[in-house]
Amino acid sequence: MANLFQTLTNTVKHWYIPLIFGILFLICGFYVFSVPLATYVTLSIFFSVSFLFSGITEIFFSIQNCKSLQGWGWFLVSGLLTTAIGVYLIAYPQISMSILPFVVGFTLLFRSFQLLGFAFDLKSMRIMSWGNVALASVGGIIFSLLLIFNPIFTGISLVTLTGVSFIFMGIASIMLALDLRKVKKIPGKVSQELRDRIKSIQDEIDHVKK
């Protein structure tokens, strides 16, 4: 109930930031397919810049929406983690191919779980397309796990799993952004009188809980 009140009375800020994430990770995914295994390690530089940029912008997004989104803390944690991974990859650009898939895999796995959590938040907000975000997130989780826990890869499967993981996460982020855009429009359709009444009801509920 509180989540519904929050949706009706607050406006999501910078909904397009997850869209930028999605496009960025789609680019990463398709770019991975164009890189031969012999130069796979050089991707750490590309990943480091991508993770660093997405991490910093995600931290900004979470702070801006701390009063609008119930799960803003997950964005903050994800932003801090992704930024840390980006810094790590910049500090160690020659990271071995045996380690890089684990670093990338765990990062994508966490972000996929994060997006899955937001899919259920969208469900509680009565956004009908939440299932699309959930399905894309599950796809990201599956391929991230394959990337992490299967130590025996041929050259093609290593590149494929990395690329597909990025693509699924990119799709989920884009879908989340489009759904957040729908959430952003909801308060504009609610009259100020109704907002005040909703706020009054919420205050009464909070008072009873105390």
Automatic annotation (TrEMBL):
It holds the Pfam family DUF308. It comes from the Bacteria. Keywords: Membrane, Transmembrane, Transmembrane helix. One of its GO terms (cellular component) is plasma membrane. The chain crosses the membrane at residues 15-34, 40-61, 73-93, 99-120, 127-149, 155-178. PANTHER family: PROTEIN HDED (PTHR34989). This is Acid-resistance membrane protein. It comes from Chryseobacterium jejuense.
